[in-house]
Structure formats: structure tokens, C-alpha cells
Specification:
Length: about 120
């Protein structure tokens, strides 16, 4: 059974940093791309960052230079380091997996809330 468990969210001031984690199980983690999505209140879920099985990364334009995604195949975990956070980054963040970064094969988990506010 596939499980994706996000953690690491919280309340942070503008300009601050957070590191999100996503622990995956139930599939061959190292064989799949992993992606981070977010959904702000009243908005559609959007793709924020992704990392291929080979470690290539890509990012939504608005987070380039501020967010970094990485993966630890030994721990079946993907990370999202978020720096220079802005109020518009406030959202629930989710991870998912697929054969390509833009695909989401798993069911959506509970996500982790990120709130950027002074």
C-alpha cells in the first residue's frame, strides 16, 4: 500500500526557512520521480518542484532560487528546503510520485501546512 507522509510545516515569518520531508513507502522509491505540490485556500493545487529518479530537478518559476528539492533513496524520503519564504508561499504542501515529475500516481495525503506571516 502506497503511503506518502509529509511533515515539517509550520508558521514562519517572511524571509524565514522551513524544510519539508515526505516519507514514502509501498513502491520502489528510487525508480520514480518525486514532486512537491501546494494548494492555497481557494486555489487549485499546483506543482512547485520535482526531482527525477536520476536526480534532475525543476521548479515553478516563482520559487526558483529559493526552494531546493532533494531525495535520499536509502531513507525513501524526499525533501523540500524552502528559504526566503514569502506570504504567497502559504499553502498546504503535498508530495507525490510518478514516472515523470508532472504525474501524480499516489493518493493525496494530509499534507503539511506552511504559513508565512508576520
Amino acid at each position: 500500500q502506497v503511503q506518502l507522509v509529509e511533515s515539517g510545516g509550520g508558521l514562519v515569518q517572511p524571509g524565514g526557512s522551513l524544510r519539508l520531508s515526505c516519507a514514502a513507502s509501498g513502491f520502489t522509491f528510487s525508480s520514480y520521480a518525486m514532486s512537491w505540490y501546494r494548494q492555497a485556500p481557494g486555489k487549485q493545487r499546483e506543482l512547485v518542484a520535482g526531482i527525477t529518479a536520476k536526480g534532475m530537478t525543476n521548479y515553478k518559476d516563482s520559487v526558483k532560487g529559493r526552494f531546493t528539492t532533494s531525495r535520499d533513496n536509502a531513507r525513501n524520503t524526499v525533501y523540500l528546503q524552502m528559504n526566503s519564504l514569502k506570504p504567497e508561499d502559504t499553502a498546504v504542501y503535498y508530495c507525490n510520485f510518478g514516472t515523470r515529475v508532472e504525474l501524480a500516481f499516489g493518493s493525496w495525503g494530509q499534507g503539511t501546512q506552511v504559513t508565512v506571516s508576520s
